[in-house]
Design goal:
ten-stranded antiparallel sheet
Length: 348
C-alpha cells in the first residue's frame, strides 16, 4: 500500500492531519483515533507507507489491532478516544488533549488529562536524538528519511479514592506506546539489551509468550536479540528493566528500510518488561491472519501519581531508506549488530 492510498483510505474513515517537509517526509495523525500516528513516508505521496493500516479491523470498527506507528495506551482506559487539537499545520507539530477516568488495579478512581504532541523532526533534531554517527548518512544523496517525536504528558487532575483508604498516594499509573509496522519477508527486528551475567541481571530476553519458537525465528547474540518479522509465525521476545536499553529497531532488507526507535526510559520501584517485539502470524498452519505485521511495545514502570502531579513519556521514530552499505553502517553503529554475517544467517 502506498502512502497516498493509505491516507486516502484513512480520510474516508476519520479526520487526518498531515505533517510534511520539503524533502518528501510525511506523517499522518488521526486525533479521533486516540491521537495515534497511523503511518508515515519518507519519499512523498507515492512511496511506501510504513505504519500498519489494518483495513479489515477498521472496516469492522474493531480498533485494537487497527494499526498505527505510535499509539499511546494506558491500562484501564478505553484504548479508543478522541483528542481535541490545540495546534495543527502549518505549525511543524500537532498538539492534542484528552480527558480520561481510570480505575486502577487497587480500585482507586482518578481523572487525568493527556497532552499529546506530535512533532515532525528536522535534520538537526534527528542528529541530536539518534547521535552524531547518523549525521554523515543523512547527507548522502541517495538517502531519504522521516523522523517524528511524540511527547505524552499525563496529569492526575482529580484523586477520587475511597476516603476509607489510608494510602497517601494519588493512585498508580503506567503507559505503553504500541508501534505496529508492515511485515516483510526479509524483515528482522532488533532488540538490544544490556550485557552482563544472568546471576546479576536475569535472562537476556524472555521468549516463552507463545511456547518455543521454531529454530531461526529468534536468535540471541551477546548484546541483542533478533526476531524474524515476516508475519509467518506468531512469536515474541521481551527484555526486562534490568537488561533494557532505551532504543530498538528493524531492517527491511528487501525494501532497504531501517527503522529506529528510542525513548525516555523512566525509572520506578516496579519492575517488569520494558520492551517487547511481536511478530503477528497464524495461530494454526491453516489459519491466516487478517493482516501481517510486527509490533514493538514500550512500557513505563507503574508509578504513583499524586493529585496534580504528572509523568511524561517521550518517544522518537526514524525511518531511513538507503543502500546496504549505509544500512550496515547504522546497524553496527546504533544497534550494535554486525550486518553482513548475522543477518544473512537469519534470512537463509
Amino acid at each position: 500500500m502506498s502512502y497516498r492510498t493509505a491516507v486516502n483510505y484513512l480520510a474516508s474513515k476519520t479526520k487526518v492531519i498531515e505533517l510534511c517537509n520539503q524533502f518528501g517526509g510525511r506523517v499522518a495523525v488521526c486525533p479521533e483515533w486516540n491521537g495515534r500516528i497511523m503511518t508515515s513516508s519518507c519519499g512523498g505521496l507515492d512511496s511506501g507507507s510504513f505504519g500498519l493500516i489494518n483495513v479489515q479491523e477498521i472496516d469492522a470498527k474493531e480498533y485494537s489491532n487497527s494499526g498505527g506507528e505510535d499509539n499511546l495506551v494506558i491500562p484501564s482506559c478505553p484504548e479508543e478516544g478522541s483528542y481535541s487539537t490545540d495546534s495543527v499545520p502549518p505549525d511543524p507539530e500537532v498538539r492534542m488533549r484528552r480527558s480520561i477516568q481510570i480505575t486502577n488495579s487497587s480500585d482507586e478512581k482518578f481523572s487525568m488529562n493527556i497532552i499529546r504532541t506530535v512533532i515532525l523532526l528536522e535534520t538537526e533534531d534527528i542528529i541530536a536524538v539518534f547521535g552524531s554517527s547518523i549525521e554523515m548518512v543523512l547527507q548522502e544523496a541517495d538517502v531519504s528519511y522521516v523522523g517524528f517525536t511524540t511527547n505524552n504528558v499525563l496529569v492526575n487532575t482529580e484523586n477520587r479514592r475511597d476516603e476509607n483508604r489510608h494510602s497517601k498516594s494519588g493512585g498508580t499509573v503506567s503507559v505503553c506506546i504500541k508501534s505496529m509496522f508492515n511485515s516483510g519477508q526479509d524483515t528482522i527486528a532488533v532488540l538490544p539489551f544490556r550485557e552482563g551475567s544472568k546471576e546479576e541481571l536475569g535472562p537476556s530476553i524472555i521468549t516463552d509468550y507463545f511456547g518455543l519458537a521454531p529454530h531461526g525465528r529468534i536468535r540471541t547474540l551477546g548484546n541483542a536479540a533478533l526476531l524474524r518479522a515476516d508475519g509467518n509465525f506468531r512469536c515474541q521476545a521481551g527484555v526486562s528493566r534490568k537488561r533494557a536499553l532505551p532504543f530498538t529497531g528493524s531492517i527491511d532488507f528487501r525494501e532497504g528500510i531501517l527503522t529506529l526507535q528510542t525513548f525516555n526510559m523512566m525509572t520506578g520501584p516496579y519492575s517488569g518488561e520494558v520492551i517487547t517485539v511481536y511478530n503477528h502470524g497464524p495461530t494454526l498452519p491453516e489459519k491466516q491472519p487478517a493482516a501481517f505485521f510486527y509490533e514493538f511495545d514500550f512500557f513505563s514502570p507503574v508509578k504513583e501519581l499524586a493529585s496534580g502531579k504528572s509523568i511524561t513519556h517521550q518517544q522518537h521514530t526514524l525511518h531511513i531508506n538507503a543502500n546496504n552499505k549505509v544500512l550496515a553502517f547504522l546497524a553496527e553503529q546504533i544497534l550494535g549488530v554486525n550486518y553482513s554475517g548475522t543477518f544473512t544467517t537469519m534470512l537463509t
